[in-house]
Write a structure and sequence with these properties.
Length: 242
Amino acid sequence: MNELRRLATLEAMGIAAYVSRRQLPGAAPTRRLAVVRQPRADIPQSPEMPKAAARLKQPAPVAAPPGMPGIEVARPAPRAQVPPRQATEPGPSLRFTLAAIVAGGWLWLEELEGPAMTPEQLMLVQAMAGALSVVDPGSPANVATAGRPEAEYFNWPLHTNQQLDQGVEAARSGVAGFIRRRLEQRTCSGLVLLGEECRSKVPLEHIDCPRVACTVSTARMLVSPAIKKQAWTDLQAALRSA
């Protein structure tokens, strides 16, 4: 095989290889091989070549000339057919923003449709916190009247690295850590979830909070002021059950 490769390399380089007709005295024995040449795939084919190629699909073994040992070139094994991969469309990415407002000794959470809480939403949260501070002896009365509260935001995903987990469970864990830190740092006595969308994002089983209230969102209350009565009923029920 090494001799065949050497001859093929010399031929590709345009160097003629000569072999002596007889054994020279004092020279190393010359190994003479019979080479069966195969047609090159990069040579343009004429219209008659496909027919000839069909007849040469299984060529008969070529006998070596007398006095020359034959060499058998192994044929490459057929490549296994690998089924093509089916293209899978990526699922919809989970993206949301939670607003966190500390007012009246409570942590108020709401999922936003826009980039930030509007001043009307903040004023509504402040009004509800003030009402709770009157009926709830556990809430400091001066917190709700200390000025308009400010909102902090939790944006998911936290990063753009697609190699890290950005699924639902990872999002719930991130939300739980965010809420636990705010409850501890701001010494809040309760948690208010505004809207069903917010409630679905908050894993209450991973948050140690004795008082949790769930009611409608401020966005809905601003569109339909009549449902403010329902929100007040929900907040009072949360106080009684605590």
